[in-house]
Amino acid sequence: MKKALTVGLTFALSALGAASAQGVTITIACGAVGQELEFCRSGSDAWAKKTGNTVKILQSPNLTNDRLGLYQQQLAARSSDIDVYQMDVIWPGLLAQHFIDLKQYIPAAEVNAHFPAIIRNNTIGGKLVGMPWFTDAGVLYYRTDLLQKYGFKNPPKTWAELERQARTIQAGERKSNNRFVGFVFQGRNYEGLACDALEWISSFGGGSVIDANGNVTINNAGARNALRTAASWVGTIAPSGVTTYDEEAARNVFQAGNAAFMRNWPYAWALAQGEGSAVRSKVGVVALPAGTGTGARSAGTLGGWQLGVSAYSRNQKVAADLVRYLTGREEQKRRAVEGSYNPTIAALYKDQDVLKAVPFFGSLYNVFTNAVARPSSPTASKYNQVSNQFASAVYAVLTKRQTPEQALSGLQTSLTRLKGAGFR
């Protein structure tokens, strides 16, 4: 298993804190999207200094699909190399057997301070396998200066309005910047595209691919209209290369001043406002646009990450203490103020320091608390296969290899076959 670590996981920092004779070494696997790794490091460093223990940080892959594969490899081998894992919101049901029950180490009052829905999501068979670290929902970033320049009083509330504004701004800006585009999003074939596509489909009243009862519902008029609309963006208001973009690729284009609109997660706010950003003080954030038709609405996919302690850790109690610190109120407030990471503790959305640093946390509170969940619960252990098939079908439409009708008809058939007698 040491070989697997060197291939897929990089030691970002060998040791944090000064080890004492009584201290132990805890290894935590963190991602590196945006400032993710830096905040994992600084938070772990504070805990290490406080406790006298040592922390090793492993940088895991940014793409969730790749990260999950490596985690599963480690856990299947019952490896003790990693004590604490950073888990996506869709993984608790898939990985629960490999994680301890954190309720035995973290007081109920602290657990109950977090959003109940996330605690329920992370509780499998009565076992709390992950403490919420930060939550997420897809949002729309826009250039406040360019909307004003081109006479738009408000950001778009529908996809049709976004298209109109993006076309106008793109045409005007390209007179002096031929790299400028109207809209960027996550179009690469991976979990990020599944998130974006779920937003599009839900916004057109097309449901959530598979409903809460496990019924495959993807082949419907709303879903077809949504994908037809999204495909029309590629090569027009969005660059043809958007089908290779993940979160960071989209952010880099927007933050360089080369896009009018961007779909991304809240983490991008702090980076856009940072020193050296070409769009500093020129960015607004609103809910994603709504589609058209019956059931049309604004929809942001639920995201977020948890921290769990491996059942194969040799230092479970100490590892749980690190998790308790990193997911606690003080650390979540620091991460919100400095990195625009959404807290999972409701009280922090009324904290004046937090709202001053990230104003849209207040105005978009309902977006975060009513986000659209991916169908990980009804599909249980088969979610990864469902998501891969869904993203691949959407990608085929974006790259013009299939029509929405062809892609969704085929997806309906393949998901029904995958379901068999049931997803459980």
TrEMBL record:
Family recorded in the similarity comment: Belongs to the bacterial solute-binding protein 1 family.
Taxonomic superkingdom: Bacteria
Name of this protein: Trehalose/maltose transport system substrate-binding protein
BP terms from Gene Ontology: maltodextrin transmembrane transport; maltose transport
A single MF term (Gene Ontology): maltose binding
UniProt entry tagged with the keyword Transport: yes
One GO cellular component, as annotated: ATP-binding cassette (ABC) transporter complex, substrate-binding subunit-containing
UniProt keyword annotations, A-Z: Signal, Transport
InterPro entries on file: SBP
Signal peptide as annotated in the record: 1-21
Organism listed in the record: Deinococcus yavapaiensis KR-236
